[in-house]
């Protein structure tokens, strides 16, 4: 197999290589959808990790205990976010030119899978909360590190004419993978099918009394899912050769080089820095759409846990369709057009959710409309940055992309909490999310749609 190419090369990419790369996105749904969004994180935030006596007593004591547990989880994720922000660009930079990008993708993905597999030992008891929160944080850290290497490989599986389509194909496949996996877990473990204390067709014990084996086995299957679908990219996408020009340097020297890169961007191409700032803001809003969407569905529109999973399946389906279409349009209209148009659609849909009262049917319409625009923005942001990154610097720049995203990750959660606290109504938290998306849109408008390389 020939050496991997960069965007400077217009040689057609073998379809097998593109599909193999995209299957990592498909497999990553095991972590994104199951662990962080709809199953394991919800399990940690449940009453399963509260003292049984407090659960029995209920009332304010139970509310306070759940709040304390939520603080433990958020603290672990905050620490993870800080480590990602500090380390992602440097680790990405150190993988550039080393001939080991694929190796680091394998190592970091493997560590995510191990963290997921260890979640089976998180029993539904207060003493296991810190262990569960730590595994969630560790998984987040290494997933972000793996994503830096994976995103950097986009230029190895696309050409200037196909990069938008390939990015959209991968991201869309991730959403489809989420649908398939969630349905599999729902049928096998999570849906009660009318049998008390038993989950899924496999009739595994559920609830605190049953050891919550429905959730724990679901995570084990998810870990295996990710492991299997992470293999093709490691076999089919060739490694970039090591280059003397990007020789390995010490850790502190790596930070100095990173600072030099940022300073050079400030002097010669501030448009890229403007994009990194704008994308950091609107990506925080995108994360909030999925993070708080389930909370709004449950608390405002009365969705049951099973209905939340069904809504998640629908949201992933619509997001996947939007991403496939958005990726196709990206190569024709430009990434900025896709990002701006989708942000406008998100802001409109967010305020529509606020205006519909408690209508469940209308929430399905506008909630799914929100999902429709999320994927195209994520995919187009990845292709936008890949287009302006010089060959051999992808790890460093995508690491910086991860860092800027983490730097403002408090915005949407903070504004959501502010509006909920001020109004004592969860529905008004959507205003905070809409304002973050609107701010990202305003910051994106001045960014030029066609960029020169950052070198």
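Sequence proposed for the structure above (455 residues):
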């Amino acid at each position: 197999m020939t050496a991997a190419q960069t965007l400077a090369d217009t040689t057609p990419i073998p379809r097998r290589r593109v599909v193999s790369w995209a299957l990592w996105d498909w497999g990553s749904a095991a972590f994104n959808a199951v662990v962080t969004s709809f199953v394991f994180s919800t399990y940690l935030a449940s009453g399963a990790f509260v003292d049984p006596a407090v659960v029995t007593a209920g009332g304010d004591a139970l509310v306070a205990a759940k709040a304390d547990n939520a603080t433990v989880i958020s603290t672990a994720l905050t620490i993870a976010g800080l480590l990602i922000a500090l380390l992602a660009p440097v680790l990405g930079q150190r993988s550039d030119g080393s001939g080991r990008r694929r190796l680091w993708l394998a190592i970091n993905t493997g560590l995510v899978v191990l963290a997921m597999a260890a979640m089976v030992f998180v029993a539904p008891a207060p003493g296991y909360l810190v262990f569960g929160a730590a595994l969630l944080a560790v998984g987040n850290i290494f997933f972000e590190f793996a994503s830096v290497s994976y995103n950097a490989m986009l230029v190895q599986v696309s050409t200037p004419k196909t990069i938008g389509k390939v990015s959209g194909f991968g991201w869309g496949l991730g959403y489809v993978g989420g649908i398939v996996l969630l349905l599999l877990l729902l049928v096998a473990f999570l849906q009660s099918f009318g049998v008390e204390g038993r989950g899924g067709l496999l009739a595994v014990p559920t609830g605190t009394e049953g050891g919550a084996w429905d959730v724990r086995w679901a995570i084990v299957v998810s870990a295996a899912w990710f492991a299997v679908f992470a293999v093709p990219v490691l076999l089919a996408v060739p490694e970039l050769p090591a280059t003397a020009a990007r020789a390995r340097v010490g850790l502190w020297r790596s930070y100095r080089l990173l600072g030099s890169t940022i300073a050079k961007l400030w002097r010669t191409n501030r448009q890229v820095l403007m994009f990194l700032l704008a994308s950091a803001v609107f990506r925080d809003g995108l994360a909030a759409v999925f993070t708080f969407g389930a909370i709004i569905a449950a608390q405002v529109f009365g969705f049951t846990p099973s209905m939340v999973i069904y809504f998640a399946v629908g949201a992933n389906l619509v997001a996947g369709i939007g991403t496939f279409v958005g990726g196709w349009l990206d190569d024709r209209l430009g990434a900025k057009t896709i990002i701006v148009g989708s942000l406008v659609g998100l802001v409109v849909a967010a305020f529509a959710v606020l205006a519909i009262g408690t209508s469940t049917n209308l929430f399905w319409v506008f909630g799914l409309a929100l999902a429709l625009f999320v994927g195209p923005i994520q995919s187009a942001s990845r292709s936008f940055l890949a287009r302006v990154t010089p060959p051999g610097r992808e790890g460093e720049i995508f690491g910086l992309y991860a860092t800027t995203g983490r730097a403002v990750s408090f915005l949407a959660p903070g504004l959501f909490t502010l509006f909920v606290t001020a109004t004592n109504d969860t529905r008004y938290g959507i205003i905070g999310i809409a304002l973050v998306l609107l701010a990202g849109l305003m910051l994106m408008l001045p960014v030029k749609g066609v960029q020169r390389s950052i070198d």
